[in-house]
Amino acid sequence: MKILLLLLCSLVTVLPLRGEEKAYKGAHLKFDATECDFGEVSRRGKNKSCVFSFVNDGTEPLVILSATTTCSCLKTEFSRKPIAVGESGVIRLVLESRKIDKGIFHRIVQIRSNSVGGTEIITIKGVSKE
């Protein structure tokens, strides 16, 4: 019984270490955050922007292929240059506040890349007021 208990205790101390080791074979896009809340936005105000930071924690260079928006009120900016292993980058979204309908909004942007994770989703939300 003591041997079993000792074995279980040693497994508990080893398992978290293995869970932290994430080795992706190929490029891997990992965002710091995937949502931006603009809060209240005036339709007559200036454009709003939000920056989504990411890192390539894979084993090959990462290339962002496209960022497809669900609204003409959103513009995207990102580098088309490969992001080396361990390097970081940003995707900037610009909300053209005059183009958004009054009320609650929630918009999605699909990020296509060569990441092993496939297509990633980032979102913005808020409330548009006159």
Features:
single chain, 130 residues, mainly beta, 4-stranded antiparallel β-sheet, 4-stranded mixed β-sheet, 1 helix
Topology:
Elements: H1 2-20, E1 29-31, E2 35-42, E3 48-56, E4 64-69, E5 74-78, E6 88-95, E7 103-113, E8 120-129
Parallel strand pairs: 2-8
Antiparallel strand pairs: 1-3, 3-6, 4-7, 5-6, 7-8
Folded structure, characterized:
This protein has 130 residues and is mainly beta. The chain has a single domain, classed as Immunoglobulin-like (Sandwich), CATH 2.60.40.10. Helix content is 15%, strand content 46%. It contains 1 helix and 8 strands. The strands form 2 sheets. It has a 4-stranded antiparallel beta sheet, with no helix packed on it. It has a 4-stranded mixed beta sheet with strand order 2-8-7-4, with no helix packed on it. A hairpin with a 6-residue loop joins strand 7 and strand 8. The longest helix has 19 residues, at 2-20.
